[in-house]
Amino acid sequence: MPVKTSLKNIAIVAHGQFDESLKAKIEHCDHVIAVDGGLIYLDKLGIKPDPIIGDLDSLTDGILNRYPNIPVKKFLKDKDETDLELAITHAAALNPDKIYLFAATGKRIDHTVTNLILLSKYPGLVISESAEETIFAIKEEVTLKTKPGQTISLLPLFGKAESVTTHGLNWELNNSTMSPDFYSQSNFALGDEVRVSVGKGTLLCFIIQ
After folding, report:
1. Topology of domain 141-208, per CATH?
2. How would residue 76 be classed by pLDDT, with cut points 50, 70 and 90?
3. CA–CA distance from 93 to each of 6, 21, 189 (Å)?
């Protein structure tokens, strides 16, 4: 039976707010996937994706014709999943260590919130990167590499998160229950490491660059 190979990091480029300073982070990944209009950003940066995924409603034939040898996974516009969700499913099947989302926030708020929900489905695997912040879901326990004074927010956007304990933040949480009535907004790291554990539920972590 053949051994399943894996990729260390996969970049998925969507069509939200994008900053060209992210080019180095995208190029650092082993595999790059364009989600519909994300191809426009990659084209401008001179990065070839593999594959292009989505209903392609944001792309012209002109830009697609520049990538004749790149596989295209085209889906109907009327579908249950978003283009980004289809791309994440495709990427997860490749067994990567991490999946990094670029241009997954900004522009339309409804798209941003939907993409934050997608993060909650893949704690520890899928991470959203922008020029301003890194966002990911925490379930159980994680150790964060930080800088002294770096802003960190922990938000329970998906219901209660129980038995939440932190080490290394200015305002620590100790076996706390987090909810819409109690959350950690604009906390900050005291040193180069922060530990967060969640007994039950899921938190979204925002690390400001």
Report:
1. Jelly Rolls (2.60.120)
2. confident
3. 9, 28, 35
In angstroms, the CA 123 to CA 136 distance is 7
Q: Do strands 31-35 and 52-54 pair parallel, antiparallel, or not at all (unpaired)? A: parallel
Judged against a pLDDT cut of 70, whether residue 82 lies above it is answered with: yes
Report how far apart, in Å, the C-alpha atoms of 125 and of each of 119, 135, 136, 168, 206 are. Answer: 8, 11, 8, 23, 15
Annotate 107-120 with b (16+ C-beta within 10 A) or e (fewer): eeeebbeebbebbb
**Sheet of 176-178: strands edge to edge?**
141-145, 193-200, 161-167, 176-178
pTM: 0.92
Could you state, in order of their start, the residue ranges of all structural domains in the chain? Answer: 9-131, 141-208
Confidence of residue 6 (pLDDT cuts 50, 70, 90): low
The whole-number pLDDT of residue 77 equals: 85
CB neighbours (10 Å) of residue 168?
19
- Widest CA span of the chain, in angstroms? 56
For residues 131 and 167, is the Cβ–Cβ distance under 8 A? Answer: no
| Helices 109-121 and 83-92, packing angle to 10 deg | 20
Question: What fold does the segment set 9-131 form as a domain?
Answer: Rossmann fold (3.40.50)
Separation between Cα atoms, residue 47 and residue 28, nearest integer Å: 11
